[in-house]
Amino acid sequence: VGDELITRFVPERLREFRPRDAGGADRARLLALAKGRPDVINLNSGDPDLTAAPVAVEAAIGALRAGKTHYAFSGIPELRAALAHKLSAENGITADPETQLIFTNGSAEATSAVFQTILEPGDEVLTTDPYYGGHVANVTAARGVPVFVPTRSEDLWEPDPTEVERRITPRTKAFVFANPGNPTAAVYRRETLQALVEIAHRHNILMVPDELFERYVYEGRRHISMAALPGAADRVVTVNGFSKSYCMTGWRLGWIVAPAWLAGPLSQVRYALSMTAATHNMYGAAVALSDAARPYYDEVYRTYGERRAYFFEAFTGMGLPQKPPAAAFVGMIDIRRTRWPAAAAAEAFIRDGGVLLWPGTAFGPAGEGYLRVGLIQPIERLREVVRRVEPIVGRMLAGAPRG
Ligand SMILES: Cc1ncc(COP(=O)(O)O)c(C=O)c1O
């Protein structure tokens, strides 16, 4: 009976979705190995250990106490103004705060709303391989078909615009990508972003940059928002939120900067999905964007930079040379010198070291040869991870048998 009900009520594309998530079986096996072990150190998720700025927390609590417990359709004016100011000062994006800023429940709902709005069933959406799984899920749930553009660590995981263009068909509607990248930590250069904007014009498609990790860029590089580039105004739909840059994953607050022509239909779909986001969280978020929270988030920035430098250098020290791209928070550890498949290496890490990392292949075939790390533990815990995995890496490099 179960199968019959699934056939009748669960559309084929959703049944197919799991196998398409290349890491499904591997992830389940790794989680089974981790289960019931209190010693396990998780570096597999994207939820930061650090918490929101205390001034933002106080503002959210204050809002609740002051009776701000009603719907805030279209978002509160304070947040609208604070975000418009941030976008102009930090990102170089000019947007009408009254119409072009759409608040959502996390950036996840932002991406979902974009694809629910723009896709007809069977429309194609390009994304990178390795990809962020949420993008693929959002496209699939909106009856779209994801199409993958392989990227390489030699290019610091930036897609080659020619490879993007080559995959465009009459069904292509958009290219969605995380900049900075998850899982890759890629930081897109201006010329790459500009070339993609030109491709959008040439082929009548949209660009959907997801800038959720925008603050975690190092090595003297700077995050560049595609929407600030010449020609971007009508072709770029920016997705972003408070989860990572402001350590607010549980607050579920994101935003879209929509081109003026798309803002109306997008707001309608966003209203259909969940009407609006949590009012008191918007009061807190407005403060997170203010100068009062800046010293706190500057310290968060330094912390992730320190973790990134330590962790990748430690792997280089183990005999696995690392050349990570400039972003932090997440990243790909190059294990190609071990000649071990990523899934087998991840299994050895959890089984023999109690360290949980996803294989790069959980994010698409181009992730083979890499383990994906979330730098979501304090540096002392990262030191413990290094202590545990060093002998495992040593055995791999010495040609120990797999599995
Ligand atoms: C690249 C990227 N985009 C979007 C999301 C969704 O985050 P949220 O809905 O909390 O904003 C995540 C979460 O890990 C992510 O890594």
Write the layout of secondary structure elements.
Layout: H1 2-9, H2 12-20, H3 24-34, E1 41-42, H4 54-65, H5 77-91, E2 101-104, H6 106-118, E3 124-129, H7 133-141, E4 145-150, H8 161-166, E5 172-178, H9 190-203, E6 206-210, E7 238-241, E8 254-257, H10 260-274, H11 279-288, H12 294-317, E9 330-334, H13 342-353, E10 355-356, E11 358-359, E12 370-374, H14 379-397
Parallel strand pairs: 1-10, 3-4, 3-5, 5-6
Antiparallel strand pairs: 2-8, 7-8, 9-12, 11-12
The structure holds pyridoxal-5'-phosphate.
Pyridoxal-5'-phosphate binds at residues 46, 106-108, 132, 134, 178, 182, 210, 212, 241, 243, 249, 254.
Mind explaining what this structure looks like?
By secondary structure, the protein is of the alpha/beta class. 44% of the residues lie in helices and 13% in strands. The protein is built from 14 helices and twelve strands. The chain has helices at residues 2-9, 12-20, 24-34, 54-65, 77-91, 106-118, 133-141, 161-166, 190-203, 260-274, 279-288, 294-317, 342-353, 379-397; strands at 41-42, 101-104, 124-129, 145-150, 172-178, 206-210, 238-241, 254-257, 330-334, 355-356, 358-359, 370-374. A four-stranded parallel β-sheet has the order 4-3-5-6, sandwiched between helices. Strands 2-8-7 form a three-stranded antiparallel β-sheet, with helices on both faces. Helix 12 (294-317) runs parallel beside helix 14 (379-397) and helix 13 packs across helix 14. The chain is globular. The structure holds pyridoxal-5'-phosphate. Pyridoxal-5'-phosphate binds at residues 46, 106-108, 132, 134, 178, 182, 210, 212, 241, 243, 249, 254. The site of pyridoxal-5'-phosphate has 14 residues, from helix 6.
